[in-house]
Known about the structure:
Distance between the termini: 83 Å
Number of domains: 1
Shape: globular
CATH topology: Peptide Deformylase
Order of helices and strands: HHHHHEEEEEEEH
Strand order of the largest sheet: 1-2-3-6-7
Bound molecules: zinc ion
CATH class: Alpha Beta
Largest sheet: 5 strands, antiparallel
Radius of gyration: 20 Å
Structural class: alpha+beta
Helix content: 25-40%
Mean pLDDT: 92
Amino acid sequence: MKRLKILLYICITLIFAAGCSKSTLSFTDGEIEIINKYPQQKMRVLLYNDKSDSLILRQQTKEFSSADLQSDIFKNLKTQMLLTVQDTANAGVGIAAPQVGISRRLIAVQRFDKPDEPFEFYANVYIVYCSDDKRTGSEGCLSIPGRRGNVERSETVIVKYIDTETLKPQTDTVSGFTAVIFQHEVDHLDGILYIDKLQPDA
Ligand code: ZN
């Protein structure tokens, strides 16, 4: 009986340990090197017309593990992406991780639909609904400097993501210009640039 209890204890401990270690850090050495290269500073923005930059911009991105989302390296990436998109010399209204060389599903979007228009981060983000109601507007991109072009986007989208503060899955319904930013940034996570979707000038 005692032996059975010990066996049971070992089993429970093993199951618990397996549960805890389910999520491990998945950052590659290369990703950590890029993030550590710009400590608390703006990062280099990759350009669509540079051959090696373009390879990264055109890649399908990977999700973060829950251990990644709780790590300091992830916090540093967010801080540095924010400094990059708010750089007064080349400011934007949104940025996606591939634009700073990190091929992961993370975007920052300026929420023009919220008071004080804050930048917010969305990890492992997907668009799960696009309205048939469309709008055409002019877009630019930090990775395509000095150019703008007309793109047709849905008026309303529903996004599914992990909240980077609470680490809980969330959905959000977004409309108007902020929905355009979400569509532009999520496209980056699938290797798509706005110039792939240009509409003829009206
Ligand atoms: Zn862009």
